[in-house]
Amino acid sequence: MAKFLLSLHVLASVLFVGPVAVAVSMFPRRARAALAGGPDRAAEAGTLRLLHRITQVYALLGMAVPVMGIGVAQVMDVLGQSWLIVSMVLTALAALSLLLFVLPGQQAAVDALDLDAEAPEHGKAVQGLRLLPMTAGVFNLLWAVVVVLMIIRPGSTTGA
Predict the structure, then answer these.
(1) How far apart are CA 136 and CA 149, in angstroms?
(2) 53 Cβ partners below 8 Å, 6+ apart?
(3) Closest Cα to residue 94, out of 137, 128, 156, 30?
(4) More confident residue, 53 or 156
(5) What is residue 157's predicted lDDT score, i.e. its pLDDT?
């Protein structure tokens, strides 16, 4: 049973967290291009909206990953191990960074697409894009550390 649950957990993380990580990483560059105007503005705006939608939908689906992970940890009897506790804290931080910084930043950029380039809100959205690459990097770094902890499991009593 543990191997089956672990397989589902890993599969869900690849299928649900992977697209979020890619969309979050691609968004800042596309947002700058879409908000800058130019001949490809309509295409860039469509891409921007799509990336934002991917981030939203797969973030919801990605909630299955920690839920299944807790189930796997219970079956494997490793819930109290330090590597897992650290992984759970980092997962929570990744989720918070997504909810508090990435998604609102993306929404502000998408909202600015509908504004006139001379509007003050448009300028604020363009200025706000400076934080998006950093928050995307933090989000992805947190997930990378979680993956490494899940593989290495420092101090684990269940073997490598």
Answers:
(1) 20
(2) none
(3) 137
(4) 53
(5) 65
